[in-house]
Fold these 2 entries.
Entry 1:
Amino acid sequence: MITEIAVVQIIPGQEQDFEKAIAIAVSTVLTTAAGYMNFNLHRGIESPSTYTFLIQWRSLEDHTLGFRESDLFVQWRAIIGKHFAAPPQVEHWEGITI
Amino acid sequence: MITEIAVVQIIPGQEQDFEKAIAIAVSTVLTTAAGYMNFNLHRGIESPSTYTFLIQWRSLEDHTLGFRESDLFVQWRAIIGKHFAAPPQVEHWEGITI
């Protein structure tokens, strides 16, 4: 399992619209993707127009190939992308058990 | 509850030492802090010398005042800080239920 961590700045004033949009995008698009496991949304305290979301995938390829190369990604971005002030910063992370 | 997300670049070659050190720092220092709730460690797939850790606190002040202003923070940094290639980037986040 890997974690996608995405940080995205939303157009100021559109925070509530973005939260509604991503709720729809998760329930109608993301949860149907192969290898999708979990989603968490966080809003910045120091930067209230910035959100971090963490998505857990079964494998890196489930995200980078299976999801991003599919029509589901087009649908996902169509629902949430209009609220982005800039392209999201996305990286992938391996969980470390300590 | 709030989430502290810290991103830190480790001196290349010291990744395993850092993982051992942070395990000790969590078990001996962090878990004794008032308001500490949970810790997760992630290692970068694109940037394997970079780690993200997420710490959940009961409140923002439990971290920024209670922990950071205490001797526990000095002990925490003494254990893990020697492996840092640069100061960590730390921000606080509010969980959003969608």
Entry 2:
Amino acid sequence: MNATVPHRIACAEAPDLPHAHWTNGWRFGNDVVLSGQTAHPATQRAADAGQPLDACEQTLVVLGRIEALLRAAGGHRHNIVKTVVYVTDIADKDAVGRARRAFFGDHLPCSTLVAVSALVFPELRVEIDAWARLDVDLRTSTSTT
Amino acid sequence: MNATVPHRIACAEAPDLPHAHWTNGWRFGNDVVLSGQTAHPATQRAADAGQPLDACEQTLVVLGRIEALLRAAGGHRHNIVKTVVYVTDIADKDAVGRARRAFFGDHLPCSTLVAVSALVFPELRVEIDAWARLDVDLRTSTSTT
Amino acid sequence: MNATVPHRIACAEAPDLPHAHWTNGWRFGNDVVLSGQTAHPATQRAADAGQPLDACEQTLVVLGRIEALLRAAGGHRHNIVKTVVYVTDIADKDAVGRARRAFFGDHLPCSTLVAVSALVFPELRVEIDAWARLDVDLRTSTSTT
């Protein structure tokens, strides 16, 4: 068995906090594994200011953070092959969809979206789990049809 | 780094809709990545007719749809290595289990099952996220015991 | 396409039950795929005895079970690259974190944590979905910073 060296992804936009019990991102060869990302602390600041971020705004912040992690790993947004989206209100599904469409354009990864009973902070409306491969660029795809 | 060409999986049973913000399935070499699948719109038609599909029926529709996507990718049901099952009522776990057993026989992929607070349409009782590899056939397995 | 022989992971700590409709673990080459693990039946015995296991205790049992599956596959806890943690009460997030930190030390896999509306038994507070690679050891990591 050949070992694959784990590479810890570090970037200012999604820093690993000293007390955290998880790592935000790892790269193993071409595979990028990420922790679920949220728009915290931007969501907290906005809520404290009386102007909470809606689901579309939160989704764009989250996708930008995922992209920052991918860039730090040597990749880009079109390496994302799948997202699992957790929302706290299923009525937000269309808002999340608009943000996804704006972010990915016509190069759409797979997606699963379910509503959960709570995320780690009360002002969070969306958390996204992304799976990415640096050897894949969805802009270069072929199709069976 | 060698690029892996992304292949968009297209099939009539699970078409990618023009307004969708996701792709139902991608193949990257031997790896198949899918979006969470539901029994919509069959569930909606059945509900409108006053005969909603129960969890076992929905699960069989969903697994059939996943199989259709795998066939379009050149594979089959025994390429599925794991499913994550989201139900809206935990009491449906046994009904889902009966459908899984009928579908997979003795060649059982891994499974995770949790109850979520909502899926994308109110008549949905189950959504399934599947992970598959075309180079794996669970019927050819060996065991440590 | 070269076939990868699926290897069913079997261990006493997480046995596959005759009536189950899933397999607890599969190994495909270096990749280990697992079913979501819980602390059942220890949770049930403790609840019946009037001393239910709290979230931290349950998490340690679950992580130990995942480790037992990995050992049976020829690996260890530092092969775990990601966990998805489902809790039934979001207030348990810190207790889960303490258990993760105790278990993984400074070699922390990615993690996603959401609260769901129910797990398969009422006394369960946490279920963990783990992804592991036998060719990866997080203790040997490098970093971009």
